[in-house]
Write a structure and sequence with these properties.
Blueprint (H helix, E strand, L loop, with lengths): L2 H21 L47 H4 L9 H12 L5 H21 L2 H7 L2 H16 L3 E20 L2 E17 L5 E4 L5 E12 L8 E7 L2
Antiparallel strand pairs: 1-2, 2-3, 2-4, 4-5
Helix pairs in contact: 4-5, 5-6
Length: 233
C-alpha cells in the first residue's frame, strides 16, 4: 500500500468517526436519495421505524435553557423572531435544553451528502451504518437492480447551497424538524459498455430535497427518525 493510499484511508476513517460522533449509528429515509437523472421511481422503505441520529443533543455539552437568550437573537440565522418556525424551535428547546439548531443543521448537511454519495457509489457498508434495517433493504434492492443492469452512477457534489429549516414543532413529546436542502450536483449514469444513458458529466444540476426528522425528546435515545423525504421545488 503506497503512501497516498494510507493518507486517504486515514482521512476517510477520521471523517467517518467524526460524522458518527455527530450523527450516531443509523440514518433512515423513506426512499433512496433523489436522483435528478433517473426517470425510474425511487425505492421506498418503511417510514415510522427509520432512525437517523442528528446533532442537537450532546450528552457532554449541555446547552443553556432556551429562556437564556433574547427572543430576537434566539434563532438568529435559523428562523425569524416571532415566526412559526421559531415558535416550534422554542417548544423543542424547552423540552430538550441540549437542542442546538445550528449544530443540528450542520450535522444534517453532513448526513445528506454522505448518504447521497454512498447510494450513488453503491457503498453498502456505509449505508448499512447510516440506515435503519428496513430502509437499508430498500436502498440495497435499488443498488442491486442497478448492478444487475450493469449500470454505474458517477455523482459529485459541487456544493450544498442551502440547508434551511422550513418547519419545526413539538407534538406531545415528539419533536419534528423539516429541512430543505438545495445542492449542486454533477451526476451521470452509464450502461455496462460505459455509455452515458442519463445525465451529463459536464453539467451541474440543482437538486432540492426536503427531509423531515422526528425524535421523542423524553427518550434517553438521542437518535432522530427520518420520517419523510421528498424532492422539493
Amino acid at each position: 500500500m503506497d503512501f497516498w493510499t494510507i493518507i486517504f484511508l486515514t482521512l476517510a476513517v477520521v471523517i467517518f468517526l467524526k460524522l458518527r460522533s455527530v450523527l450516531g449509528q443509523r440514518t433512515g429515509r423513506e426512499r433512496p436519495p433523489y436522483d435528478p437523472y433517473s426517470a425510474r421511481d425511487a425505492v421506498r422503505g418503511a417510514t415510522n421505524d427509520n432512525v437517523v441520529t442528528l446533532p442537537g443533543r450532546a450528552a457532554e455539552t449541555a446547552q443553556k435553557p432556551i429562556e437564556a437568550s433574547e427572543p430576537a437573537e434566539r434563532w438568529k440565522g435559523i428562523a425569524e423572531a416571532g415566526s412559526t418556525i421559531a415558535a416550534g424551535l422554542d417548544a423543542i428547546a424547552r423540552g430538550d435544553s441540549t437542542f442546538d439548531a445550528q449544530h443540528f443543521v450542520a450535522g444534517s448537511r453532513a448526513a445528506y451528502e454522505m448518504i447521497v454519495m454512498a447510494y450513488a457509489e453503491g457503498d453498502r457498508r456505509t449505508l448499512k451504518n447510516l440506515l435503519s434495517r428496513e430502509v437499508y433493504e430498500g436502498f440495497e434492492a435499488a443498488i442491486r437492480e442497478r448492478e444487475n443492469r450493469g449500470e454505474t452512477v458517477e455523482t459529485r457534489f459541487v456544493a450544498i447551497d442551502k440547508s434551511d429549516i422550513t418547519a419545526a414543532e413539538l407534538r406531545g413529546r415528539t419533536a419534528q424538524v423539516t429541512l430543505r436542502f438545495v445542492s449542486q450536483l454533477i451526476s451521470v449514469t452509464r450502461d455496462k459498455a460505459g455509455n452515458v444513458i442519463e445525465g451529463n458529466p459536464e453539467k451541474v444540476t440543482e437538486v432540492t430535497d426536503v427531509w423531515t426528522f422526528a425524535r421523542d425528546i423524553s427518550s434517553r435515545d438521542p437518535n432522530w427518525k427520518l420520517v419523510a423525504t421528498e424532492a422539493g421545488q
